[in-house]
Amino acid sequence: MTKTLQDFVSNIKENSKNIKRNLRRFGLALAASAMIVSCQDCTPFPPSDLPPEATLTVDKTSVNKGESVNVKVNGTAKSLKNLKDANAKSDKFIVSYHLDADYDGNGTVDETIEQETPIDIYRQLDYVGKAKFSAMTTDNKGLTSDVKSLEVIVNENINNSNNKPIANLSSDKTSLIKGENANLGISGTDGDGVEDIKEYEIKIDYDGNGTVD
Q1: Class of the 53-155 domain?
Q2: What does pTM read for this prediction?
Q3: How many helices (H) and strands (E) would you count in the chain?
Q4: In this structure, which long-range contacts are made by residues 25-34, counting pairs with CB atoms below 8 Å and at least 24 apart in sequence?
Q5: Which of 4, 18, 102, 162 sits in a 20 to 30 Å window from 204, CA-based?
Q6: 74 pLDDT higher than 70
Q7: What is the DSSP string of 115-147?
Q8: How far is CA 76 from CA 18, 51, 79, 117, in A?
Q9: How do the domains of the chain map onto residue ranges?
Q10: Distance between CA 131 and CA 126 in Å, rounded?
């Protein structure tokens, strides 16, 4: 075989190898594209499980000093099973309900409540400003929820009103004959219920002429 023929055969073999190599690369690229297209809506690295959710509510977001507020903490366990099938029975449940309360709003927790059942408490708020509450839940897999927080505004309870007292006048007779006696009585109550009556006074017009006798 002449040298020219040998070079020709060698070139054919080398081109064949290149064609096979390119075909393999093209095949891998097609496979990767198919995987990407079929997994557009899937999560590449799905979580092993879902954390629970916590709910924190109060019956009033603004109160006067000395009034009470009802604070509730509840929660819901979440499972991957329920994402795939809403009717599937979940193996998750809440094992701990946690509440932190900062009644004077200074950033320091004044009371912590942690229990196995939902929290439902009433607390009197005695500090003017903002009372702050935060809550979280934990499920039986040890996963914790995001912290939920809220504030209750506590207003100064100022009572500048001073209502008039109420007088009560009584008589043992509403009709009598000239010369007879009638027994009159007077009593009273404070309109605000916080002060004592300081003076009682009766004015009488015996002849009914409009002048106090």
Answers
A1: mainly beta
A2: 0.54
A3: 2, 10
A4: none
A5: 162
A6: yes
A7: ESS-EEEEEE--SSEEEEEEEEEEETTS-BPPP
A8: 60, 9, 10, 12
A9: 9-42, 53-155, 162-213
A10: 10
